[in-house]
Amino acid sequence: MTSPIDPIAGVSVLSTGSVTIHPEHVGPTRKNLYVWLFTSTRWTEPRPINTYVIEHRDGLVLFDTGQDRASVTDPDYFPGGLNGLVYSRLATFDIGPQETLAAGLAARGHRVSDVDTAVISHLHQDHIGGLPVLGHARIVVDRGEWDALGKPLPEARGLMRRHIDLPGLNWSRVTPELLDDSTIAPFTHGHDLFADGSLVILPTPGHTPGSVSLLVRRPGHAPLLMVGDLTYDDALLAAGKLPGVGDRKQMRQTVRRVNALRQALPGLVILPAHDPGAAARLEAALRMSSVQGAGTHE
Fold this sequence. Notes:
Elements: E1 8-21, H1 23-26, H2 33-39, E2 47-56, E3 59-63, H3 70-73, H4 81-90, E4 91-94, H5 101-107, E5 115-119, E6 138-142, H6 143-147, H7 161-164, E7 170-174, E8 177-178, E9 189-192, E10 199-203, E11 212-216, E12 224-228, H8 234-238, H9 248-264, E13 269-272, H10 278-294
Parallel strand pairs: 3-5, 5-6, 6-7, 12-13
Antiparallel strand pairs: 1-2, 1-4, 2-3, 8-9, 9-10, 10-11, 11-12
């Protein structure tokens, strides 16, 4: 029996440096955001700033673009004043010269110019850092997330427009449409990136109103769900526990939907942007698929 053709040649993860945040940021916490932000004296161990790389037959795809090294080398990268104080209390970054998006791609045998499409989970700075070098690519973002840039006080909501709305970028603003795919219930809407079911953008609001995740499906492989900052720890997500940043009502609804998707897609591997265990889970899933594939005969 002939196996279905896999449109994806490979999936990998690269990290554009590391971020240190407060434990309350990871959650769970009952404290108000601004209470813990200005009173917490504890910090986590460094956590990765993950970008996921998908080798699709229709082009190289990124899910998120990581953090720009300029954020640690340019003293004017972040805003000043009260907003600057909030940014400095939220996180600290460590990004070496070999931890840029370009260096990470090169280590995997790719050039920046190979990137065809970048799907942005949301527009916070540690997910859009690669935009300055992606003027040739299609940049996909949820339309609601993009529209938030035009609302008052974007920097106070974590959106630094001068690092996002860059000249020459090819933005593709998508709105989730009804999907004829009962296998991913309870999700009913999304955006099928290449119209082949292999890469489906799903609305997962909560961290920001327009946050999205990317479902990756391949024949003979465990399904993957790249979730941005919906969680910082897959075990907490599985337990239904929320991080300390975001709209709690939206996050609670989205977490329930993602955990229901685990039931609909057995073996689903959750890949957050800052979960220290994400890279190992991806490697284990790919290794298991490889072993199963080697034992399968046509």
